[in-house]
Amino acid sequence: MHFYTISDCQNNNIKGIIRNSALATPVANANIILSNNESDQFITGTISNKNGAFRISKPNNNCVTLTVSRLGYVSKKVLINSNTYSNPFYIELTPDTITIEEVTVVWKPLIDYNEEGDVALNVDQMGNVEKLFLSDIITNIPGLSIDIDGNVLYGGYHVFTTLINGERMGSYYRGKPGFILAGIEAKNIKRIEVITEPNGRFGFYTPVINIIPKGDLQDIYYASADVGTEDKYALNLDFTKKFKKLTFRPSITYENTQYTTKEEEERSDIEATTTQAINNLKTNKQIAPSMEVDYAFNRDQRLSLDMDYTSTNFSNNRNLTYLDGINICDLLSNKSSAYNLSAAYYKRLNIGFGQYGIINAKASVTENKDNETQDQWILDKQDKYQTESSNKNYDASLFFNYNYHKKGLFVSANANVSYSYYTRKYNREIFDITDNLWHEQYLYENNTTTRIFTASLSPYASYLIRTPKKTSHYFKLTLASYLRNEDNENTQQVLESSSIIYYTQNFKYRYSMKKEKELMFLINNRITPPTYKQLHQPLTYVNDYTMQQGNNGLEQAYNIEGVLSFCKNTNYIAISKGVSSKGKDKEKIAYDFKIRFNYRNKEIVQDVIINEDNSIIYTWKNAKESFTSAFDSKVDWNVNKYIRLSGGLSYNYRVFNTITRSENKDWQGNVRLSGTLPVDIKFDIQSTYHSQEQNYNTTTCEYYDMQARLSRFFLRNKLRISLSAQNLLSHNGIKTEYKDDESNIITQKYPESPIVWLKANYLLFSYYKKR
Asked: Which InterPro entries match (predicted)?
């Protein structure tokens, strides 16, 4: 052990140079680990550059140890205290002179940087992580933090998508809360990859963090219980059990929610003024069991079977009271059920380095049933209605995918063939008290049977460029070709359509500046032909004027959007080629300013046409042009290591050209205080202001809202207890006013009184199986 008295009091950073003691030459790629001298617990780490230099952030505690190691050298430990020293200082490593006949060494540095600027932390190269969790490791990587929900943040704003072995974490814990990061022990993790610009890797273009465990995640046990005010409660049990190649995932969810809302409305016209008060009591009870069974032939081939069932009882007790004393009571009750049964086959083909293909075949059957009854009382008169509907779908699809990734180039091609057969039945009846019988209500009966065949081919390409001058930009292009054949037995319609779509074009330019500042420009251009909507959202296709089938009345739609962003992060991961990750403890303020715009012309939207016989036809039409611009700002202040204060301001300006030109604008502001209280209680308080907003003839008045949360972990981060409150200010009411030449309608809506939730989440991993 060597003892040094070193510190950099000006910037609280330790700077040094690693040299060969025999030759006085720099030692590159040496591992430098900073740990607590008393507990020997890992704090942070880095590696030396090609000149042997390094810089590492020093915590506030005065007693830390710097461990320096390199293959072929004798490791050295340096004790650090708070006395001053000449900067930089030198650490000399002695070459290891042990002679061995033959050895095979597998070694990786603590932190890796590849040519594309990604950062990876080799957790298995770290020592003394037995008492640490995955969240502890992530928050020690410069630029990364975890919010109260368990989301990984980059610079405080950009939410990462968290993956395990390149797959969404949802595929492991089925979309459960993100506190899973706090429950995985670091000793089970092999490597953490931080990819700020994946450029299509794993199917993402936004930041991802990929966690590579030392083995396969085995059994998972998850349970949650929620209790809220106004008779609200929920229970969820979710398990994952593995038996060699077979995996079972049973789950069940039960929810009971009740909401009470109020609404006051005043209508004024030339003749009179009427006032009504509306009280709604909504109750929803739902139970949903499910089972998923997977059989894995190997890592690249599996067969799965999913079974889901949902039963829902919904009721709405609605009372209307008018100024003249007339009272209307409306009781709506709906019992619905749905089930889904599907089987799928997945095969990954590893073609070569950076190349792979995917084959995915799936077949499913889905059925939904609804039985709705409505009782309405107006004075002494009672009306009864009942509605029955059922939908049944049979679907089969075959999907092919090819991916090629090399440095900045990503090429992909998708081919898909699918066949669907579905039936729709709908019937609404009214009860006649004169003959005591149910009668079909006119124009409310609809029975259809439809067959659809679809084939598509979509090539895709993107290219990402990074330069030593800290810039990166990418261009991506998607082409798509579709063929669809639809046969409707009820209306005797046959639709055949095909199109080649120049679908999307994107360009992004990013420039990383000094002092953790970054400038980014992004533009997207989408072109949508008329047949695209018809292919993906089937309706009854008619021409607006001739009432004939087809899309002759539709034109191609255009959508252009852009973003200009300027930000500064308190800690950041450099994305440019050849630049290391770094962070400064003294940086307290982060900000992010964005200007966004969106221009749309001839957008294809849904329309409703009523024929002369009063029949209703759903079709498409081209909307006129619209323009939207917005300014967003966010400021983040790290008050200290326990408290963070953030705020934001958004301004929106919109222009719509319909029958008349309409302009509207609004702005929103929010303040958020979060951090950690004594005994590790995390808190989060957010207050929001919404300005007055006008949309055509409707004006929504300004209002405030606030929500607050507290949470704490127990049982070695396996149990989380949280307390939250919402609608703390908005329950005072939100006022809207509609005004035209003939009438004026003022509405005051009161959301439910402040809702308080007490939640408990328990998540347990049995173990990771060693590879």
From this structure: CarboxyPept-like_regulatory, OMP_b-brl_3
